[in-house]
Design goal:
Elements (H helix, E strand, L loop, with lengths): L9 E4 L4 H12 L3 E6 L5 H12 L4 E6 L9 H4 L4 E4 L11 H22 L5 E5 L35 H18 L5 E7 L1 E3 L11 H10 L11 E6 H13 L5 E5 L2 E4 H12 L12 H11 L5 H7 L9 H7 L6 H14 L4
Parallel strand pairs: 1-2, 1-4, 2-3, 4-5, 5-6, 6-9, 7-8
Antiparallel strand pairs: 8-10
Bound molecules: NADP nicotinamide-adenine-dinucleotide phosphate (NAP).
Length: about 350
């Protein structure tokens, strides 16, 4: 990969997002000029935390009105940039029309941003926020892996518009990114594949990230009778920002990077919170039996289909984070710190 000139502006899509917030912070604290591509620069609530970060750092931030679905929409924001971070993509689970709400913004958005990189002669590197959702579809697939762990070599081949549509959207978006990258030679592509991101939100009130909805669900009584024991990888949002930053500025970095601090589960995440906050909040500490989930899951939650339950509940998730540790130098925070600091932000903001 090529060296990036830090005196040039860097562009970031989806700057208002939960994950992007900590990356913007890191870039501003490093004294960089950030071209923040956002859907609505006049929405002062959504950019308030970014303004605050810029005020307390040596870097600068400028906003550019851009939409993933509008062709040419990133031209002004990208102009003069050597480095582009593409983080924008909807991370929502309750959707009526998965094609329109998830797949089109993910795939067409990636195409739009990367074709703009082809048009913008200054661009040398793109760092894409993909997901572990592009690595695997269901926990049951772990059995088919040669070493019993998901790795950067794996691709999700089982998700679809009907089953795990968010995972499908991330898979086809990342595939599109590699396809566009391989048809040119000027810019390199680095891909970050985070598992479930947790940790303190800089924008807990304005993000619609599913991470925050899951965390809320653990504390607001939704799961007071028990949590489904679903294996998940969990990673701190600050460690994800670090991985993006290192993938951008480490000349040797290349390919995909699974960014996962802990092979964990929804139940373990709940139990950590229960130990610290269980006295005051209805946090689950027991697992919901699989047979009960099969019975009531599909009625209370559209995404909890019997197929999903069958292939994910009571099954572990396992991955290997050695590539991100060895090549990007990422060190992962303890899970307790991540979960507690994440939950405390919700309490401090009266969200829980
Ligand atoms: N959170 C996780 O656990 C996790 C794990 C792996 C990967 N990721 C990936 O991380 C990225 C950020 O997710 P997040 O959790 O931070 O969610 P988030 O807070 O909801 O951020 C999503 C961002 O995408 C932007 N966006 C959505 N649709 C758009 C459109 N049509 N045009 C322009 N921008 C659009 C949103 O802008 P607005 O503010 O205007 O809505 C927002 O900035 C996504 O690519 C997601 O797939 C997240």
């Amino acid at each position: 990969m090529k060296t990036i000139d830090r005196s040039k502006p860097v562009m970031l899509t989806g700057a208002t997002g939960y994950v992007a917030g900590w990356l913007v912070k890191k870039l501003l604290e490093a004294g960089l000029t950030v071209h923040a591509a956002v859907r609505d620069p006049d929405n002062t609530d959504k950019i308030a935390h970014l303004e605050e970060l810029a005020t307390h750092s040596s870097g600068n931030i400028n906003y550019f009105k851009s939409d993933l679905l509008q062709e040419g929409s990133y031209a002004r924001a990208m102009s003069g940039c050597e480095l582009v971070f593409h983080t924008a993509s909807p991370f929502i689970s309750h959707v009526k029309n998965p094609k329109k709400e998830l797949v089109e913004p993910a795939k067409l958005g990636t195409q739009n941003v990367l074709e703009q990189a082809n048009e913008t002669k200054s661009v040398k590197r793109v760092v894409l926020t993909s997901s572990c959702a592009a690595i695997y579809g269901d926990n049951s697939e772990l059995e088919e892996t040669p070493d019993g762990v998901f790795s950067e070599q794996n691709w999700n081949t089982t998700s679809s518009l009907e089953h795990q549509p968010y995972s499908y959207s991330k898979t086809i978006a990342e595939r599109k990114a590699w396809e566009i990258c391989q048809n040119q030679e000027r810019w390199d592509l680095g891909v970050i594949n985070p598992c479930m991101v947790m940790g303190p939100a800089l924008n807990p009130r304005t993000t619609s990230s599913e991470s925050i909805n899951i965390l809320k669900g653990l504390g607001d009584g939704t799961l007071k009778f028990g949590a489904p024991d679903i294996g998940f990888g969990v990673v701190d949002v600050r460690d994800v920002a670090e991985a993006h930053y290192q993938a951008a500025f480490t000349p040797e970095a290349q390919g995909r990077y699974i960014t996962c601090g802990h092979n964990s589960s929804l139940l373990e995440m709940a139990q950590i919170l229960h130990a610290r906050y269980g006295e005051h909040y209805p946090i689950p500490k027991k697992a919901l039996p699989k047979w009960l989930l099969m019975l009531i899951g599909p009625m209370v939650n559209k995404t909890m289909t019997r197929k999903y339950i069958h292939k994910n509940v009571n099954l572990p998730f396992k991955t290997n984070n050695s590539k991100s540790r060895e090549e990007l130098g990422v060190t992962y925070r303890p899970l307790e710190e991540t979960m507690e600091e994440a939950f405390q932000v919700l309490i401090d903001n009266n969200i829980i």
